[in-house]
Amino acid sequence: MLMRTLLTALAVTTLVSCASSGEPAPGPALFVARDVDSTLYIYGTIHLRKSGAPWGSPAVDAAIASADEIWTEIEISPASDARTQQLALQAGLAPAGRPLSSWLSAEENERLRTAAQQVGLQAQALEPMQPWLASLTLSVMPMMRAGYDPNSGVDRSVDSFGDAHGKTMRHFETPEEQIGFFANMSPELQRQMLLEAIDEVERGVASLDELSAGWEAGDLRAIEQLAVDEFKDEYPEVYAVMLVNRNRAWADVLAREMEGAGVDFVAVGAAHLVGNEGLIELLRARGMQVERVRAQ
Question: Any idea where the domains of the chain sit in the sequence?
Answer without folding.
Answer: 2-292
